Amino acid sequence: MKKIYCFLMFAVITSSFSQEGENMPEKFKSYHSVSGLLSHTLVKNGIRDGNTDWISFPSFAFDYNFVFSPKWRIGFHNDVIFEDFIVETTNSEGDKKELERSEPIASVLVLGFKPGKHFTFEAGMGYEISKEENLFLTRIGAEYSLELPNEFEFIANVIYDVKWDAYDSFAFGIGVSKSFGK
């Protein structure tokens, strides 16, 4: 009886490997993608009408990604807020000060991980550039994508930026991505 059981287990295992080879996807080819998103950015500790609170602004994101494996990508993501604003910050001694920002542009190098078909998780570092002062930032985010015809995708994203020793911002956007070289 043990011999029959071992034979059946061997037959099931080997047949599953042979079928796996037939259903294997074709070889992955790396490609590039560019995205444009209309966004809404919320700034923590913004000052408006003398009050400190979360304030929101329209923004735009332009992203470039190089997809080098089915699950991994590296990108250069750029966001611009279309308005000037003031935020309240606290220095290392605990003193509060006001920081002025004039249409800041955040440029970030990100690494993306796509575990399934639709979601990509991102993390990266870069700078927020403004005429007053440039700020180092760290970004985490998530993106949902839905394939459209002709190598286009509908995308929606959520990102959180930490501007070190300054302020934080949270953005969500929707847009379109186009892939090249698939």
Question: Compute the gyration radius: what is it?
Answer: 23 Å
Mean of residue pLDDT?
A: 87
How many beta-strand elements? 10
| CATH fold name | Porin
| Element pattern in H and E | HEEEEEEEEEE
Largest sheet geometry: 8 strands, antiparallel, barrel
Helix content: 10-25%
Low-confidence stretches: 1-24
Number of domains: 1
Q: What proportion strand?
A: over 45%
Which sequence of strands runs across the widest sheet? Answer: 1-2-3-6-7-8-9-10
Level-2 CATH architecture = Beta Barrel
The geometry reads as elongated
Structural class by sheet pairing and helices: mainly beta
Alpha carbon gap, first and last residue: 53 Å
Give the CATH class. Answer: Mainly Beta
Number of helices: 1
